[in-house]
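The methods section describes the discrete structure representation at length, but only in general terms. Since the whole study asks how a given chain folds, the encoding of that fold should be made plain. An entry of this sort, consisting of the sequence and the corresponding backbone structure tokens, reads as follows:

. . .
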Amino acid sequence: MAQITLIEAITQALAHEMANDASVVVLGEDVGVNGGVFRATAGLSEKFGTQRVLDTPLDETTIAGVAVGMAVQGMRPVAEAQFDGFVYPMVDHIVCHAARFRTRTRGRLSCPLVLRVPWGGGIRAPEHHSEANEAIFTNVPGLRVVMPSSPSRAYGMLLAAIRDPDPVIFFEPKRIYRQYKEEVPDDGEALPLDVCFVLRDGTDVTLVTWGAQVKETLEAADALAKEGVSAEVIDVATLKPLDFDTIHESVKKTGRCVIVHEAPRTAGFGAEVAARLAEHAMYDLVAPVERVTGYDTHIPLFRLEMKYLPSVERIVAAAKRTLAAS
């Protein structure tokens, strides 16, 4: 079986669902003829036709509104926000309509759309192309917020997102689109949403992260292991709704927690994880919770970009602080 990248796994999942469900359509800027700015939809227009792979105007508000209309009429649209910073004009339709239809209609209508959002920094892109804005959507009732961190999870979770009866925001960490490959069978097997994935077992400290930062966090766990520290690594994967039980069970074992994300620190989603630990795991902790995050600035361009993102060194230092505190 050939190995594929995360972006190729996205394409594979889209093609699988389009072949097996005629209600699945793809729409967005340049998704058809050009195959998307990151090539996520390459070949889909030729295979499924322009009635199901729709090149839209450069108008994110219209893309979101059309997707909502399609979804409530029984289709399963997969809309693309070309970059994370382009999602803001879509917020009105997603927050005020897509997320509310089930409640608004007392269950008579649902809105099974997926909004794919290439997400995060680290690719030397200009302003509006390197946002980590997941916390905006985790605060909205009625939305699922998903962020895979590997080709296999991208494939399985996108299948689950398309099949979900409610709207899903599907963040794709573009820094790792082509970073490594895995064998991903095109078997149509969805992965469960709403669960965390324990990527590495450990006994001394729990490292909680998601998206592109999974790579640095696993590398930090390797570095800690060389010093005799056993770190458990958890990929949150579905931020909303949060599988807190998995995190809590880990912290019961380790007594320590470091939360890693690249979004700005203040009111980032890591603060929600920390708050739940304070509410439910206070007596399991033997040291204060640490957060390793981006800074409360817009991501700096080019030269300082990688200094902004959490590094292996910063994660290791935070873990050592929790060990020294107990």
Summary: The chain has two domains: 3-183, 197-325. The chain has twelve helices and 14 strands. The domain at 3-183 is CATH 3.40.50.970 (Rossmann fold). Residues 6-20 form the longest helix (15 residues).
